Known about the structure:
The chain is an alpha/beta fold. The protein contains seven helices and seven strands; from the N terminus they run E-H-E-H-E-H-E-H-E-H-E-H-H-E.
Amino acid sequence: MVNFSLEGKVALVTGASYGIGFALASGFAKAGATIVFNDIKQELVDKGLAAYEAAGIKAHGYVCDVTNEEQVNAFIARIEKEVGGIDILVNNAGIIKRIPMIEMTAAEFRQVIDVDLNAPFIVAKAVIPGMIKKGHGKIINICSMMSELGRETVSAYAAAKGGLKMLTRNIASEYGEFNIQCNGIGPGYIATPQTAPLREKQPDGSRHPFDAFIVAKTPAARWGTPEDLVGPAIFLASEASDFVNGHVLYVDGGILAYIGKQPK
Ligand code: NAP
Ligand code: GCO
């Protein structure tokens, strides 16, 4: 029988006080996993703990900036001591800056690369030795449609997410022999705080042009929800995907397959 259960597993989801990370961690908890998450600020960790408790989930929350290698190493050591060895890692924490490239400073570009690409390297590097000791592990990197496509104003984000796709493939290549599977999830356009600016109503009450654009570009004719990502993530976190490695699973309502609704 195919095993989709996460019973007895310890799952770390970075940046999971809310948004996609919160939905994935909540879904993992319902599939039997013990949940660990982090955020940069204690107040957000507390907010996240309260939200998990309200959902009937006992989560372990810690303050950690995933771009800080010293903090991450101490964080992982603390989890292994206080909760247990990590079986599942979801590199979810991420930021975006929407600035035309020639107006973006190098510091702004580096900041996005730091969170969206350097941090998944730092966290995976800290977690993999424990997975090798355990004889198994699942790493899921939250990529993006921008791992495949570009668009105006998101140069740093697309570069980071494109790199994250290749980091995913490289971890799969280098650690597959230790029964560690590393895959990506590439969400389409998902309704979270990160995309709120693309959906807000215009001063005249009309829809944001980008909102209408995305709905026309998506065969499912809607924005995704964080919950749309939970089933695919449980699959990649479970033994059901033990022979899936180095794959980016796009959960995008079909947008990457579609040229877009023709003008009437
Ligand atoms: P979000 O609502 O902005 O949440 C991002 C989370 O990451 C927040 O909890 C944030 O905490 C945390 N974070 C940011 N920088 C961090 C750092 N240095 N250390 C620790 N935590 C940090 O974003 P989301 O929409 O849920 O997206 C989650 C992931 O999915 C991101 O990697 C994003 O790129 C990716 N994604 C999103 C979409 C979409 O349409 N929403 C589509 C494809 C991919 P703070 O609040 O403290 O900053
Ligand atoms: C943007 C959006 C996208 C989504 C996502 C799409 O400004 O284009 O924020 O980048 O967040 O990454 O997969």
